[in-house]
Amino acid sequence: SGSFTEGNLTVTRGNEVTIAVSHSGSGTLTIGGSEYGFNVTVDLGGSGTTEVVLDTRATTASDPAEFIDGGAATMHSPPLDEALEPERYLLRLEVDGVEQDLSTLTVEPRGETTAASFRAPESFAPAEYTGGGEDGDADVGPLEAAMSEGSTVARGDYAVIRFEESGLETALNESDLTGSAAANGLKLNFTQTDPGPNHAAREYVATDGGNVSVLPSFSNDRLYVLWNTSAVPIETQSGRNQYQATFALTDESGLVESETTLATTTFALRRASVSLEPTTGSVHQPWDNDTFVVTGQTNRVTGTTLEARLRGTGSNSFLELSDATINDDGSFETELDLSSVPLGTNATLWLRPYRSETAEQIHLVAPDPAIELEPQPVNGTS
User: Which CA distances in Å does 114 have to 71, 117, 120, 159, 214?
Assistant: First the structure.
């Protein structure tokens, strides 16, 4: 006896599919046939349940062991020029030479790939979330919580792309998206759209050394790409700071005959700007609250943390620190504690790491109390 455990199967072209069969003795699984241009048999030893995994993208290999796992495979048709085409393929199970069950494997076309632009704070560490998801996916929950929609990115923040895609999960090499054979034909690059006359366009390719990180979430048909912009030069002409991100397939993928763009999106890089209050010349009076409020505005992404510092030097040396987290509208507010700070001195207030842009001189006034008793008339004399 023998049967297909899950009946008819469906897979997106380029993905893997598991064909589970139960068999009472040694058997043979046939995928396709001569009429399909793809004819592979898989020997099933012994008895029990066997899971045969077929990688529909790698079917261009001449050795079926490169795309079949779970049994000894034999190719009875010529190697394919491209990955297994969308079609309904016959599955046949024989046990001890007798046909026991039939099923079908439907290979569906890949869906359209779309791209959306986001930003994430520089404090996010992509390497910490590799793995942790389903079937080896990255743990993308923290990234989704940290990122905010937008394509204008302050230098130092992450430019984030969320690709909605299908059929590429077996092709992804997270450390190489150059389009080469090692990258399985997947190509992703950020290219300067207008470098100016006599200048080559800057290009940042998704590799280990390109400041580009990849976090897959194939269980949700998503792929997240993060570009660290901290090392990207900012030019005075805003048009020189425009970059296009392009996700493409080359012929090395086995899915296309020539380089094909799947999706694009654009980013505008900007120099980080920060304003701070109170400003130079502000005075903190002795009767003011010991809580010193610092506010400001920035184009850094939501969730970025900046450190407010108040520094007194010389004989009145002190340093007070407090973190400020950026709100959705770019504003921030934090408080410094002055209860133990020596008064009667000037102090410098700034935001780290933007001292040159935000340094302000604040005067902390010391108390100088006095009581004045006016002459009072008593019985006609003073």
Answer: 37, 10, 19, 16, 16
